[in-house]
Structures are given as structure tokens and as C-alpha cells.
Amino acid sequence: MRQVSSKDITKKVRDLCISAACDLEPDVAGAIRAAAEKEESPLGKEVLGQIINNFEIAGKEGLPMCQDTGISVFFVEIGREVALDSSLEEAINEGVRQGYREGYLRKS
Predict the structure, then answer these.
(1) In Å, what is the CA distance from 12 to each residue of 41, 80, 93, 99?
(2) What are the DSSP calls for the chain, one per residue?
(3) Residue 97 burial (CB count, 10 A)
(4) Which candidate, 63, 72, 79, places its Cα nearest to that of 95?
(5) CA atoms of 64 and 76, how far apart (whole Å)
(6) Across the chain, what does the average pLDDT equal?
(7) In angstroms, rounded to a whole number, what is the distance separating the alpha carbons of residues 65 and 18?
(8) Could you count the other beta carbons within 10 Å of the beta carbon of residue 15?
(9) 23-62: pLDDT as tens digits
């Protein structure tokens, strides 16, 4: 049986909350850059340029791209051979609390 620490779960959830708000996947960033290059409208080019600038700053500075994070939803699978040292729900909720606080995310 594998023992999993609630502190490890909390830290991973915290890190995921911050990463989700600050790091854009390379394929998504590439698609936005490609759209900006093809965009014909001056206003559209400007808006896409601002979005690109925003996600570049977010990645470099570790700041959220947008503070309006909506609601956190987690889908979790636990194997039969895993034992937790405390409540999974409490560990996840604490990770979200820490991630939102330390990642400067708006609590909605």
C-alpha cells in the first residue's frame, strides 16, 4: 500500500492553480501568434498583440494572465493501493486557498 501525504497533495494543487493562471501551453501560444499574423483588422491585431504581451509577461514574471479564475474543478482518481493520511477534499481545498493567495488570484 502506498501512503500519500495530504501536504504533498496540497502543494501540488497549489502549484497547479498558480501554473494554470500564469503558464500558457506552447501550442495555444503558437495558435494565438499565428492568428495575430493572419489577422487583417487593425483592431484585431492590436487586441491579439495585447493578449500575446499579457501571456509573455505572465510567464516571465509568474503573474496571472487574468485574475478572474472562475471556479476550480478537480477530477481525481485514486488507486486501490493508495492510503491518504487525511481528507483528500481538505487537502485540495487548502491547496486552492494557498494557490489563490500566493498566485494573486481573485477568489470568486
Answers:
(1) 42, 21, 12, 10
(2) -EEE-HHHHHHHHHHHHHHHHH---HHHHHHHHHHHHH---HHHHHHHHHHHHHHHHHHHHT--S-SB-----------TTEEESS-HHHHHHHHHHHHHHHTT-B--
(3) 15
(4) 72
(5) 24
(6) 92
(7) 10
(8) 15
(9) 999 999 999 999 999 999 999 999 999 999 999 999 999 8
Distant-in-sequence, close-in-space partners of 65: CB < 8 Å, separation ≥ 6: 21, 22, 24, 54, 55, 58
Residue 6: other Cβ atoms inside 10 A: 17
pTM of the complete model beyond 0.90: no
Place of cell 510567464: 59
